[in-house]
Amino acid sequence: MDFEVDADTRAIGEAVLRFVEREVLPLEDEHRAVLGSERTLFQPDGRFVPEVLALRRRIRMRSAELGYYNLFGAEALGGAGLGAQAMAHIQEVLNHRFGPGRPLIQTVVLPSPFTNGLSPVLRHLEPTVFARYREGIASGDKTLCFGLSEPDAGSDVFAMKTRAVRDGDHWVLNGTKQWITNSPYADHAMVFALTDPEAAARHQGGVTGFFVDTRAPGFSVPRLINTMGHLGGDTGVVILDGVRVPDDHRLGAVGRGLAVAMDGVNAGRIGMAATCLGLARWALDQALEYAKVRKTQGVPIAEHQAIQFMLADSAMDIYAAKSMIQNCAWRIDRGEAATAQVSMVKAFCTEMLGRVMDRSIQVHGAMGLTNELRIEEGWRFARVMRIPDGTAEIQRRTIARQLLGGRADL
């Protein structure tokens, strides 16, 4: 196995970093009065203020214009088709350089497969239908959301209650989706619903995906769900009240929606793991620099063994995470089955980030708790990331089942 990042991928990563430094950071400085506090970042209902939405759209479209926004989109969809190893490297370097809490960078410069860009789920949309929407999505002008989770159906997907009933050339959708990222802002939704409740009860399919216009009558996002003390965000509750969707807007075959959904989930987990790796490296950098300059008892705290152990433990966590991501991405790019490995990477990297951020806070002492250093923001992000796209416990269940079924090649 050779995990050396090739020169082309390194060059792309460096170009993305230059783009952010040249065009995004100046916008951050120019609009600091809005971006600098959540009191000005969000409206009273928790949604981004219009100025921030306009900035995010501007950056998405500029990133797309320069060829970065769709780096990881499949070539069949019009993307650059870069693989999992390239995604892992570029997400890592982006988050390592700029750290957490950057609403004009994270999931904007490079989209999440769940919310923006040429999501792998779109491969299952009828080609002539996709062609009508492709330009808006690929250009960054239009965004997406991924509607799978429900109030009583998170990890237990077959417990979903949202129904889709055939009515001539349309389907009629009714139900509630919850924890749906980007739903307050999305132009299109990838929604999954029961079409055969009996098959779903037997865990034998029965779920179908649909590509839904969020402006359709009956589609609404009545409220946001604020998490970890934030005053707003991008996660909402979606209500589907008699939403009509043409049959040619199905995502894949009737009853095969969960296989379709997993295309987005797996891609999202690798990207999430690489993001966590980059942020962990950023946090360790902050701790290292502070430990060299902060003094107690007449010496830098870097000379105290307790501090050294925390730095070393973080370095070991990061090295292990990077090794796991590289191996997993290598398997995916080779076309190998990697269900267990993707679950291991998602669980380990999200938990690893929490540990590294916590140690960085400890190294900084009271300063680590302040908003200005953004380390506490990274810690909050880590706590959140452990839950979405399958909790760490669900990942462990998947790993165990793969082991017990003899399907986990370690």
How does this model look, in words?
This protein has 3 domains: 7-139, Orthogonal Bundle (Butyryl-Coa Dehydrogenase, subunit A, domain 1); 144-256, Butyryl-CoA Dehydrogenase, subunit A, domain 2; 259-405, Butyryl-CoA Dehydrogenase, subunit A, domain 3. Helix content is 48%, strand content 14%. The protein is built from 12 helices and 10 strands. It has helices at residues 7-30, 32-35, 38-41, 50-65, 84-98, 127-138, 197-201, 257-293, 305-333, 339-364, 375-385, 392-404, and strands at 144-147, 163-167, 170-181, 188-194, 207-213, 219-224, 235-246, 250-251, 295-296, 299-300. It has a 4-stranded mixed sheet with strand order 1-4-5-8. Strand 9 and strand 10 (299-300) form a beta hairpin. Helix 8 (257-293) packs antiparallel against helix 9 and helix 8 (257-293) packs parallel to helix 10 (339-364). The longest helix is centred in the C-terminal third of the chain and has 37 residues, at 257-293. The radius of gyration is 22 Å and the shape is globular. The mean pLDDT is 95. One of its GO terms (biological process) is fatty acid beta-oxidation using acyl-CoA dehydrogenase. Residues 255-404 form the Acyl-CoA dehydrogenase/oxidase C-terminal domain. InterPro entries: Acyl-CoA_dehydrogenase, Acyl-CoA_DH_CS, Acyl-CoA_Oxase/DH_mid-dom, Acyl-CoA_Oxase/DH_mid-dom_sf, AcylCo_DH-like_C, AcylCo_DH/oxidase_C, AcylCoA_DH/ox_N_sf, AcylCoA_DH/oxidase_NM_dom_sf.
